[in-house]
């Protein structure tokens, strides 16, 4: 069996060389991290859940014409994706006050913002991903003014889509992080959504109880992180009820492409925000 070439390893994922030019294989790890890995723990099954949830979201985005890097899911932990040049700027869309914006602006967690707010953070772990302005992004050449416009327009579309998707399962989209990449298509460079969209990159609250159903359960040492991710997958129709005799791994139902997915198999135990 040919050994795959590792392209990049982050806190929650590994990228391998893909089977065809212009493709990569994205592997989802079980690592849970926060505050630049000051908190780090292995959560059995986390990678499987994020892979499946992110697949579901990206497939829905493809159907409504939001350009992204997803091609198909390969197995329990891996996706085939388009190779892109990642723009070193994280785009955070906020609907409800939570995370660092509360500390910076003296807001109360849960306060509804006057309108959705888009913020930019420079992707640099050693600097703790600092908040930056559009002026910084263009001055240092991280993205052009047109690329910023494209990213913001896509972020708004994704926010509208995700807000409706989660509202339909009784979940409030508080905020979320997006990453973007440059993708060459027909000799044209296009900005598309990359990375992942999962409870690792979104703040999700139950509409009725306001219970946190995302990585804040890990950041804030609340416990029950995997159970919360599993609940999101269940509400999205991606899981069957667990049978006690099957152990702790999640059981996933067949995906929309008709391929059956069985019980999680043990995988490598190998995300990286600062609680934005």
Description:
There is one protein chain. The chain is an alpha+beta fold and 276 residues long. It is built from six helices and 14 strands. It has a domain at 85-206: 2-Layer Sandwich (D-amino Acid Aminotransferase, Chain A, domain 1). The strands form three sheets. Strands 8, 9, 10, 11, 12, 13 and 14 form a seven-stranded antiparallel β-sheet that branches. A five-stranded antiparallel β-sheet has the order 1-2-3-7-6, covered by helices on one side. The chain starts with 5 loop residues before the first strand and ends in a 41-residue tail after the last helix.
Strand content: 25-35%
List the uncertain runs.
Answer: 241-251, 253-272
Helix content: 10-25%
Q: Give the full name of the CATH homologous superfamily of the domain at 85-206.
A: ATP-grasp fold, B domain
Run of helices and strands: EEEEEHEEEEHEEHHEEEHH
Give me the Rg, rounded: 18 Å
Number of strands: 14
> Globular, elongated, flat, extended or rod-shaped: what is the shape?
globular
Query: Count of helices?
Result: 6
Return the CATH class of the domain at 85-206. Alpha Beta
Largest sheet: 7 strands, antiparallel
Please identify the oligomeric state: single chain
Structural class: alpha+beta
The average pLDDT value, as a whole number, equals 89
Quote the distance from N terminus to C terminus: 41 Å
- Please tell me the CATH architecture of the domain at 85-206 by its name: 2-Layer Sandwich
CATH fold category name of the domain at 85-206: D-amino Acid Aminotransferase, Chain A, domain 1
């Amino acid at each position: 069996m040919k050994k795959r070439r590792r392209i990049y390893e982050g806190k929650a994922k590994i990228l391998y060389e893909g089977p065809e030019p212009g493709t990569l294989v994205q592997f989802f790890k079980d690592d849970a991290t926060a505050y630049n890995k000051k908190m780090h723990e292995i959560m059995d099954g986390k990678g499987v859940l994020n892979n499946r949830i992110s697949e579901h979201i990206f497939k829905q985005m493809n159907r409504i014409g939001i350009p992204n890097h997803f091609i198909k899911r390969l197995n329990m932990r891996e996706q085939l994706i388009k190779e892109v040049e990642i723009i070193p700027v994280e785009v955070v869309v906020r609907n409800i006050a939570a995370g660092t914006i509360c500390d910076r602006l003296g807001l109360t967690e849960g306060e509804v913002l006057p309108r959705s707010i888009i913020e930019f953070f420079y992707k640099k772990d050693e600097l703790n991903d600092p908040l930056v302005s559009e002026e910084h992004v263009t001055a240092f050449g991280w993205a052009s003014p047109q690329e910023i416009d494209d990213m913001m327009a896509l972020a708004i579309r994704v926010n509208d889509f995700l807000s409706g998707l989660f509202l339909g399962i009784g979940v409030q989209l508080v905020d979320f992080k997006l990453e973007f990449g440059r993708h060459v298509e027909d000799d044209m460079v296009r900005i598309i959504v990359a990375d992942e969209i999962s409870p690792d990159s979104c703040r999700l609250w139950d509409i009725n109880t306001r219970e946190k159903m995302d990585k804040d359960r890990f950041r804030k040492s609340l416990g029950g992180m995997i159970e919360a991710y599993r609940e999101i997958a269940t509400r999205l129709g991606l899981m069957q009820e667990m049978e006690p005799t099957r152990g702790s791994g999640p059981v996933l139902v067949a995906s929309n492409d008709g391929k059956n997915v069985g019980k999680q198999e043990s995988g490598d135990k190998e995300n990286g925000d600062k609680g934005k």
